[in-house]
Amino acid sequence: MSEYQNTLQYLFNLQNRGIKLSLDRVLLFRKALGFPDRAFDSFHIAGTNGKGSTAHFLDAMLRTAPIKVGLYTSPHLVRFNERIRVNGATIPDDFIVRFTRQWRDFIDEYELTFFETTTLMALDYFREQEVDVAILETGLGGRLDATNIVTPIVSLITSIGLEHTDMLGETIADIAREKAGIMNPNVPCVIGTMPPEAALVMAERAGELTLQLISAINLLHPSNISVIPDHGTKFDLMVKGEKHHLRLNMVGRQAAMNAAYAVAALEVQDHYALDWPEQKRAVEQVTIPGRLQRLQESPAVYYDVAHNYDGFVQLMQNLRALHPERDFRFLLSLSELKDISRLHEALPAEASLGIMTIDDMPMHGLAAWEKALPAREISDYGRNAEAGKQWRSDLRNSDIGIIAGSHYIARYVYEGFNFSLDS
């Protein structure tokens, strides 16, 4: 086993320390590293859904300027290195090895978690690479998330829904308060579409901090959103007082909204002069694996990282727009940490359901699915890539197949379809 592989094994073993909602250890590590986050500007993104896609749209537009841009997102699909990028290039293996070797004793002494460690690794790498600006996606919540040690030039909160209620609170308002924890005094904050009780919490917190709260919808007025089968998504935005027509490579209403959130974040900042036609071209060309990604033409098969109720609702809206009056066959795989009790409301009653599990993470098994969806017949296709292959062989030509769930099933999904991110 190479030193890089040993390093990854060590890092992934840090997940056994669980999730610790506290900034104490991160602040100590940040100080030991010499405050790497102070070496560059940052955009900070939180939200129940859409924050990863919004980060990618923002990254694409910022890179149209003659500046160096860092991007920190999670989780990865296939390789750990995907989490940390500079101008699109993933962090090299040797930095991961070098950073971990240098700081391993500190990480163990203070019992830093996996996400805390990788967050500081990203900040240190961005400083070494002398990025001008970094885009940071929160991991969980906001207020006590490891990324919440930065003072950004813009904060962005994409959406609020029920998630991780055991840690973030049991109501929309509770969760909104946690997400609003990324707000900073005098730093503009852009918010996306969210329930009224969440929007109220955002407004109250913004008032306490005397910051400018900007609704992306009120700023840009996204309209005329339409999904074009096999051709992406069309929509209109009002930018600088003029209506512009955009056509994304990405598919779905939520893709248009996430793009709008990213545009809004750039509209309210004054650090970088950006050319709108260049921004528009960049955002239109973005493609992100795992977001309604078409893996096969006939029968059609999609892979999507929907992993909570709101994500599945959005997924179904897009699928019905793409394939009205077609038969859907799902292969589902969600972590035991995810609440699946409401998915019966999101999944069509007539759809065929199958599940798969993987070796890397405890996933909901057949018994859990049958308890959550007692009126449904559910097939267990087994584990890893073989599960996907077996499910695929059961598809009829008239079916629309959808593999959905945890990011961590991606490597097995792609193996079953001979897809490589490098291609």
Kindly list the characteristics that best describe this protein.
16 helices, UDP-N-acetylmuramoyl-L-alanine:D-glutamate ligase, 423 residues, six-stranded mixed β-sheet, alpha/beta
In short:
With 423 residues, the protein is α/β, with parallel strands linked by helices.
Structure characterization notes:
By secondary structure, this protein is of the alpha/beta class. The protein folds into 2 domains: 3-285, UDP-N-acetylmuramoyl-L-alanine:D-glutamate ligase (3-Layer(aba) Sandwich); 293-417, Mur ligase, C-terminal domain (Protein-Tyrosine Phosphatase, Chain A), CATH 3.90.190.20. The chain has 16 helices and 17 strands. The chain has helices at 3-13, 24-33, 51-62, 93-109, 114-128, 165-168, 172-179, 196-209, 216-220, 253-267, 276-285, 309-322, 343-346, 366-372, 384-393, 410-417; strands spanning 41-46, 69-72, 84-86, 89-90, 133-137, 154-157, 189-191, 213-215, 223-228, 232-239, 242-248, 293-296, 300-304, 327-333, 352-357, 378-383, 399-405. The strands form 3 sheets. Strands 4-3-2-5-1-6-7-8 form an 8-stranded mixed beta sheet, sandwiched between helices. Helix 2 (24-33) runs parallel beside helix 5 and helix 3 crosses helix 11 (276-285). The radius of gyration is 21 Å and the shape is globular. The two termini are 26 Å apart. The mean pLDDT is 94.
